Every structure is written in structure tokens, then in C-alpha cells.
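Q: How would the C-alpha cells look for this protein?
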Amino acid sequence: MGLKACPLCFYQRSFAMGVVAVLFVGLLTAKKHWCVLNLLALPLAVAGFGVAVFHVYLELSGKLECPSGVLGLGTAPQQSLAVFGVLLAVIAFGVARDHISDAPQSVAAIGGVVLGVLLAVGCIVSAPPLPPTPTKPYDAAMDMCRPPYRAP
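A: Here is the predicted structure in C-alpha cell form.
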């Protein structure tokens, strides 16, 4: 689509690729390993979801304007949030389906969620500051998230 990744977009893409890699390995393994792979994908999905929530918040609060996503259905961060929501639901279902009554697995699932939240917070805190609000309209087409121009 010719879009450049802002730092928050980059973090979301990285977490999405990590989830896909872990789940792809799951397709190559025996079914008995799926529970462990769901637990490994859980923190990545939680972190990506958390960064996407923050990114959409910045967009909805008017601090960022972001380019349209695939087929123009919402913006790229909104689509990312939707995809991470679905991934998180599928992974959470997989974790819950496989021996949720097992105490060590329950602790691992809670630990995975906490780790994912910490990863998201770390990404948000370490992201570079937003560029200053522009004083004149942009002369280039929007190809990355940016602060919106507001006429005086």
C-alpha cells in the first residue's frame, strides 16, 4: 500500500508477525503442543492489542491522523486493532479450551497477559515523541501517521 510505518505501527506489525510465526509453528507440530504455543502467542497478542488501543486513542483524540487501511475500511490502526482483537479472542479460546483447570497453565496464562501488558507499556513509553503540530497544511499525500494540521 506504500505506507510508511510510524513507531506505533511498527510495534504492531512486529507483534503481529511474532504471533503469526508462533501459530505457524503450531500448524507444523502435533496437536498436543498447541496449548503451549497458544500460551507463547498470548503475550504477543496482548501487547499488539495494547499498542493498537493506544494508537487508536491518539487518533480519536485528534493527536494523530492516520492513513486509510485496506479497502478504505477504517484507518490502518483501527484495522490493526480489529485484527488483534480477533487474534486475542482465538488465542484466549485456545488457552481456555486446553486444560484451563490445570493450575500451572492458569498461572502461565495470567503471566502471559501480564507480560503482554508490560510489553505494550514498554513500547508506548519508549516510542519517540510525536512530531510538532504543523503550522501549514501538508503538501504531500498522507503515507504515514502524523499530527493533523489545524487552521488557525
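DSSP finds four helices and no strands in the chain.

Helices lie at 7-28, 34-60, 76-97, 103-126.

Upvote if useful.
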